[in-house]
Amino acid sequence: MKKLLSYVLFLASIQSFAQTGNIQGKVTTSDGKPAEFVNVVLERTTRGATVDEAGHYTVNKIPAGDYTLVASFTGLVTQKKQVTIAAGESLTVDFTLAEDNQQLQEVIVRASANRVTDKSSEMVARMPISNLQNPQAFNVVGKELMKQQNVVAITDAFKNAPGVVAALYPSGGIGALSRGFSTGIDARNGLQTTSGRGSADIANVERIEFIKGPSGTLFGAGISSFGGVVNLVTKKPFETFRGSVDLSVGSFGLGRISADVNTPLNADRSLLLRVNTALQRQDSYNERGFYNSALFAPSVLYKPSNRLSVLVDAEIYSVNSIRPTYVRITPDAGIRSYADIPLDYKKSLLENDLDAKTNTAKFFTEAKYRLNGGWTSTTHFSYVNESTERSYQDYPVWISPTEVTIDVSRYGPVGNNYVNLQQNFNGSFLTGPLKHTVLAGANVTQYLGRGQSGGTGIIRTLNVTNGNLPKIDRILVDSALVPGTMLNWGRSNTITYGAYAADVISFSDRLYAMLSLRYEYFEDKSLGPWSSPYTQSSLSPKLGLVYQVIKDRVSVFANYMNGYQNYPSIVQPDGSTLQVKPIYATQYEGGVKAELFDKKINTTLSYYYINIDNAVRYGSNSFAFQDGKQVSKGIEWDFTANPAQGLTMILGYGYNNNRILGAENLDRNISSNSPQHVGNYWVNYQFQTGALRNFGLGAGGNYVSDAYFDDANLFLLPSYHMVNASAFYETGKIRIGFKLNNIGDQKSWGYWGAPNPTRNFVANLILKF
Asked: How much is the pTM?
């Protein structure tokens, strides 16, 4: 049977290839430089491509016939060439444009805002389908938007995704709140990674993809949450020498320098190198706090033939910092809002020597081979190590309007290792009038972890009305952590095996259906005080339907998606263990997408309904329970536009109603850390002519409504509206920028009750070569 199926697929792929051809080539300027962002299209059709950083383009699956191939870009003379495509032919057509590279760079700078509307990605659906063919809502925050906003902290980029709020974990990691659920930054170029303790740096990030809703079918439980997937897409080498150096200074002693250098390593440009690096030092708006980091991220791309490419890249990231405070309030403390905590916003009860030090080493390889018949084989291997030397984490608990108890835990050494092997096959074939775009893949992931931790218990009870309170320092904490109080966690050891397939069926050039399924087998072999070895298997389906109401401009979509979480036991505060049953979430989503005016406007409006039958919740006493349902539903609107040359507009809104159902004493309560209204907006304009040519201004903000810290809905995280503004000057060789954040100096509290920064500025100078 397997041989017969393989034979049928082989014949189908030959048939598909035989009916079409493709055009590829290189577009350069008169001085021999790549003409990045030039549009190459087949006249009177919707088929085309955009020239990449190396100057290359490819237009695939073109029906045999005669065409006019057009190369065009704002400010350049349009060129046309007559071509004839034969069945099964791969044609090479190159263009040389009249402008030189320096003039083109000036045009690119003024036209770069177009890129904020681009949602092109092969990682979101793990196959080459367009946004209008994808029956799922997702958002993309690219490097152009991050540059406009002088982003130096990766979580600031999250503010451009509708319905998303950045989360800082007490362990030092980062995440995002999306559709009522916490989502870790656990995907890098579609592969499993981690940022649970070591965070991440923006310097090596090309764009950030926010894939909404339970996405276990294509990504697995180790990467996705019920709120979605956050995928970091890193910078890749290209075929020309180019680089930049970015120097940033700002509030709270910010000093940061980063560099991005790309160069070919041989004459035929088959071996390419790109290196991104960053060094940052910064204190805090609070009298306690600092964040010092260093990044080194090299990547090498080798193309021994036009069929095979091998990418090897790494990230070495080191952070020494103060962890976010985990602030709690007892039910009888007489405090109901975090805004009413009596401690001054900029004061601390602890010293700066209670810090954390984490090193992360990530290594990735990708081998991509173009098979006959238009099929592609992609093999991935990754190794991720996150090592924490020490991590002091503090837990103040307010027990009255004036009194707070302090306990501190020390974690470390802690080591987490992830090894992932993944194989994907992508291709297309015909069955009669139906076209199939197919993904088939498998992966195996092993996680090994070791660690230890200990806590002081209540080390002090302080009355904040007393002046000159003595601060808690490392000497006091370490003396309370006497030998024997540090608990060895044992050895974590889990293996996940996954196999998945997806088929996007084109019933016509407007109607598409997606059928996807993943099988995953999870095995926990951990040994230690909290371990409970077990195995679990899961089937996760995903179904979607898309109809293009206006061809290549407006589509309506609907999906059914499934997500799941492999839960081991949960250790309760009293040392007992809760055996958690497997948790499944299902989502129903529908909406409309539009790409209008030559993709100068891109918008998505969707409604979603997520249901969990046996949700895990946490009480105000930090005990975990699995005794009820959870329903999260809402709407999201995403709007990006470049309505005029040099003008960027970003608008987003998310409404989320995430409630616990059926749980004792909590029925109909709003789930913790689930703001119901989240809005974002940004407008940026660069003058195109006159005395202000190359100057620009930007302004925007974020609104987050009230949320509850706890499922009991006792403690309020107040709403906030932060407004930001920027000014800049940019040419093809230099950019000078200034950004003022939180102009109104709003006080706000985020995930885990940790305060957010006060008003601050960032100024930067970028030199390009």
From this structure: 0.85
- What does pLDDT average to over the chain? 89
Q: Evaluate whether 658 touches 675 at the Cβ level (below 8 Å).
A: no
User: Is residue 606 over pLDDT 70?
Assistant: yes
Q: Measuring CA to CA, how many Å separate 93 from each of 49, 69, 110, 267?
A: 13, 9, 28, 22
Structure tokens at 353: 């020597």
Q: State which amino acid sits at residue 365.
A: T
Name the band, by pLDDT with cuts 50, 70 and 90, for residue 16: very low
Distance CA 554, CA 565 (A): 35
Residue 566 structure tokens: 């492999």
Quick check: 619 pLDDT over 70?
A: no
Q: Taking 60 as the threshold, does the pLDDT of residue 313 lie above it?
A: yes
How many CB atoms neighbour CB 193 within 10 A? Answer: 26
Question: Whole-angstrom Cα distance, residue 498 to residue 564?
Answer: 13
The domain made up of 131-232 is a member of CATH 3.30.210.10? no
Question: Tens of pLDDT along 621-652?
Answer: 778 888 778 999 999 999 999 999 899 999 99
Cis peptide before 413 (omega within 30 of 0): yes
Third-level CATH fold of 233-768:
Maltoporin; Chain A (2.40.170)
Task: Give the CA radius of gyration of the chain.
Answer: 27
pLDDT of residue 430: 93
Give the rounded distance of the alpha carbon of 121 from its chain centre: 13
- Are the C-beta atoms of 338 and 716 separated by less than 8 Å? yes
DSSP β-ladder status, 20-29 and 95-97 = parallel
Identify the CATH class of 2-99: mainly beta
Sorted by where each begins, the domain ranges of the chain are 2-99, 131-232, 233-768
Q: How far out from the chain centre does Cα 633 lie?
A: 22
Q: State yes or no: cis peptide before 568, omega within 30 of 0.
A: no
Confidence of residue 2 (pLDDT cuts 50, 70, 90): very low
Taken as a whole, the chain contains a residue count of 769
Which secondary-structure segment (H or E) carries 475? helix 474-480
Contact between 753 and 327 (Cβ < 8 Å): yes
Q: Which residue has the tokens 């045009």?
A: 107
Secondary structure, 3-state, 310-374: EEEEEEEEEEEECCCCCCEECCCCCCCEHHHCCCCCCCCCECCCCCEEEEEEEEEEEEEEECHHH
Task: Give me 247's structure tokens.
Answer: 């120097």
